Every structure is written in structure tokens, then in C-alpha cells.
Amino acid sequence: MTPAETRGASTPDAAAPTGHRAVTLDPPSVTITAEPEPATTTPTTTEAPATPGARRARRWRWTRRRIDLTVYGGFLLAAIWVTSGIWVDPAGRVAALYSSDPAQVQFFLAHSVRVVLHGEFPFFTEQFNYPDGVNLMANTAILALGIPMVPVTLLFGPAVSFVTLVTLGLAGTAAAWYRVLSRHLIRHRPAAAVAAWFCGFSPAMLSHANWHPNIISQFLLPFIVWRVLVLTRSARPVRDGVLLALLVTAQAFINEEILLFTALALGVFLIAVVVQQRERWTTAWRPLGAGLAVCAALAGALLAYPLWVQFAGPMAYHGLSDAVRDYGNDIAAFFAPGSPTFGGNERANVNLAPNYSEENAFFGWSLSLLVVGIVVWLRRDVIVRALAATGLFFAVLSLGERISWWDREIATGPWELLVRLPLLDAVVPTRFGLITGVTVAILLAYAVRRAWALRGVDRRTARKLTAAGLVLALLPIAPMPLQVTTREPVPEFITADRWRKYVGPDQTLVSVPVPAMGNTDPMRWAASTNLDFKIPGGYFLAPRNGVTGDPGRFGGRPSGIGEMLREVSSTGRTPKLDDRQRRRYLDELRHWNAAVVVLPRDEQNAEPLRRTVEQLVGPGRQELDVWLWDVRKLTSRSA
């Protein structure tokens, strides 16, 4: 079995690697080449010498390499356009509405620096949420992205590394899909370019570009898909299984959830093909089974210890919190344009997605109708039917546990039956829409290729109509620059290294308010020093109450002083502390082994916060741009 041909035999690809036959997603291979001009002969006259302009015109041709480089360059320029607002000032600008995830990613990038320069343990850290620490394997520490970015992080800082990853994630994903589709699966450059554009710059990718470089960095996925399809007819399944295992291992250190989605999508797609053409299974099961067995053995060996740390190590959690597990798409979200697109409207999309970083559908009416038309038009094609079934299956799962239409619940979703299964209990269901997006992209490629090869009509007319249809469908969801907002700079007290004379290796710098999901600026402070000091709290996933194996939640153990300072920051009201509260909060500072308490002078409601801290530890003093309390005598073991 191979999801290669739909009718008849596929044309072998001369460039296919030795050891397996070519794998395509349609019968004949189609490529774009420059048509040579017809030769003319003039035996009795002498040809006039060509002018310099004519010679230059003859020398310039749109070769395959130049076409590819132009497409790659277009993807890069589009990615720079999308991230241009952040590139203006990477350290001082962040995506609007919500800034916690970028700070977390910058913290992880600084952790990669410590792994490379100091040999720090890569899968667990005590540099935040001290002293309990954080299980980094359970928090997508993006080691496969952060370690290659170490030179950039050292030279320019984690903020520049963050926007670089976002830019390369968008452009790299589109470029990878273009290469695999144009060389191996579709083998038609215009069709591959259209599909790759949507894979790299769909509304869902633009939404995640605000905060999640680990999710948009999907440049390995096309190669994983291709290698699995190769296995269905491989003559060297061991070698191909090894190659697949290396890709799987690398992707696991970028984002495991996306890897799981890829495996599920491939499984559903191949089943959909076999159900229609059962004879394919007789030729495919041996190489596919052998290759996947080799892949599972090698990838399992490489990932065994990291996965043990993730699921059984310290601060491991089992399953996500109910708040995230309930994230699902509204049916209407598939017909609205995404917020960060040309036709998008943030207010119009309210309640159609869990938040603005999880707009995982939002294809718009025109594209949705076009895709339905493509499926109807090419309904006799086995692969088209399999792609349609796969996309629809995961679109339904993305609706979550409760199916709704314009924020009105209408039924219980099938995800209700799957949400508690192992591995799936850690999945955010709305993100299944990402799989639907890829199937939509490949269906577009199918349609473009088939339209390009139409016979019996004027070819130019067919191509113009195809281009017009694509513009009509894709223009409303064309990418726009990400909306950004300014954020407070890292205090000079931190950047000038004044903290170093107070904070020892096993002590913490306690910020006011205490770091948490809604207050991640102190994580940026620590990241700017390559995590040279520890902090309590932070934004991360951990087991409830810090008990390994419990269901996950955002943040560590509940903190009395943290909750109090957060309330003061939001309300501006100064509480009156009694002796019991003082003893309790001082015990927390001792638990954190706090060296100093730091309050930026420009913090929201800084004056009420200062008065509150002074009730607890006494008068503070100004040092550069912060209020500072040296609490080492209060938190020492002897005290």
C-alpha cells in the first residue's frame, strides 16, 4: 500500500533515493520547465550578431533552482513582514494581549545556554520555582531549538533569539513543505508553493506566532510524513526506519504534541486509503511494519531517559488541568477569518476560540467553500477522499468536549470519550485544527495541479481562473504584521549586575509581585543574566500542590505571600498584616531561601506594594531603579 497513485501506476522519479520507488500523491509527475524556443535554420544567410540585451535575455532562464530560491525568499520576506513589529525592538516589544509565553520561552532559551556552557542537566531545573524546581521535559523546553540558538542568545540576548525562532519557524515550515511537496509528493512547483504558503502562514500559524515558536516550528514534519510514505514501499526498511527515528527524536525536543498529531494524522490517512483500496495493504504491511519497528526501537532508546524524566521524574504531572482540557473550537470558527489576517477582526472572533493564541481554525467562508468544491470536483480520487476524511475527523475532534455554534452549546463532542486516555489527556483539543489545516493545504495543491493539467480548454484561461480562485480564497486570510505592545525594560539593578553582591548560588531573588502566570517579567530578568540567579514561582506546568504524579496546573504550590502581593498589585489596596500573617509569610521567604526582595519603582501600584512589604520585613531602600530589601538575616537558617 502507498498513498501514491490514485488511478493507474505512478511515474517513477529519477531523483528518488536508491532502495525504494518514488512516492507521490498523484499519478503523473508534473514539473515546470522553461520551454525552449523553436530552432530556426537559415542555411543561405549569415545570422546577424545578437545585441547585448538579447544575449542577456537568452542567458537568463527561470531554472528550477532559481524558482526554488525565489519561493524560499518569498517565504522569508513574508515571515519578516509578520514579525516586523517585534523586530523593531525585540527586548521592548511583545505580542499584544498576553505576554507570559514569550517570557517563558526566553527563560528556556537561557537554560539552553547553561546546558551548553556549564553542562547543566537539560531536563530539570531549580532556577525557577525554587526549591521544588520544574520538570522541563514536561514543559516543552525546546532544546532542539534553544541549543542551536545559543550563539545568538549569547551575542544578542534571549529576546532576539525568540523573534528569530518565530521568523524562522514560519519561513522554515513553509520552505520544508515546499521542498517535500515539489520534489517528492506532488512534484508540481506552483501547486507545492500554494500548499506550502498555507502550511506556513495559515491563520492558526499566525495565531501561534504570537507566543509559541515551538508549535510553529514544523519544518521536520514534512520530512516525517514523506519518510513514512516511503516506508510503505521501501526496499530498505531498516535504513528508512533509522532515518525516520532520527527525525522523530529531533521533533520530540521541539514539541511532542505536534509529533503526536503527526502520528495520529498519518494513521488516520493510511487507514482511509486502505479502506478504499484494501489490496494496497498486501504490499505495504511488511516494509511499513519493519520500518516502524526499527523506528520505534531506535527512537525509544534515544528518548527513553528523557521520557522517564517527563512522566516519572521529579515534578512530573499526569494530564492537563480542566481549564486547558476544555479548550475547543466553535464550529463558526472554521468560517471566520483569523484575527492576525487581512480580513480578521478581533472583536468579531470573540468566543470562537479559547484565546487569541489558539485560533486553530479560521479558514474563512471563501476558503471553506473552495475546499468543499475541490472535494466534490475530485471526489473520485482515492487520495482526495482520504485527505477529506482525515481533515474532517480532526476538525470534529478539535471542537472539544462540547460542540458549539457561535458560542451556543448544541451537543456533546466525541472528544469527551477520548480526553482521559493516556497521552491524549495532555492534548489541547483545539489544536487538532492544525491537522485540518495541513489537509486543506494539500487539497489546494491537488486542485492547482489538476487545473494546470486540464485539457480541452485554453491553458491560460484555466490558469487565470485558478489564480483568481486562490486569491478570492486566500486574500481574506493573508498574513498581517503581529499586533505588539511595549513592555517594561529589565531593571537597571539587574542589567548592571548590582544584584550579585546580595544573591548567592543557593539563594533567590524575590520580585514583587512574586513570579506567576500573569507576572512573568522576573523570568525575563533572570533570562537576561542567563539564569545566574534563582527565583521562586514562575509560569510553568507542574503537578498540583507539587506532588509528583498529580494532574497538572499552571504554577507551583499555592503561595500566601504571592496571592497577597498579586491582589495588592491589581487593586492598589494595602492590607494590614497581623503577627500570624507575618510569621506565615516569613516562613515562605525562608522556604525560598530569599536573599533580597525587589520592587521596580515603576511597577503598577508600586506604593501600596512597598508599604505592604515594609509591614513584613521593615523599611526598604532605593537602589538604582528598584526598592530593595535585604532579607538575608531574616531568612537565614539560624534566624
From TrEMBL:
Residue stretches of biased makeup (Low complexity): 33-54
Pfam families xref list: DUF6311
Domain DUF6311: 80-452
InterPro entries given in the database record: DUF6311 (IPR046278)
Region of interest (Disordered), residue spans: 1-57
Signal peptide: none
Key words of the record: Membrane, Transmembrane, Transmembrane helix
UniProt entry tagged with the keyword Ribonucleoprotein: no
Keyword Transmembrane belongs to the record: yes
Transmembrane stretches, start-end: 69-88, 155-178, 190-209, 260-276, 288-308, 362-379, 386-406, 426-445
Stated name of the protein: DUF6311 domain-containing protein
The organism of origin for this protein: Micromonospora aurantiaca
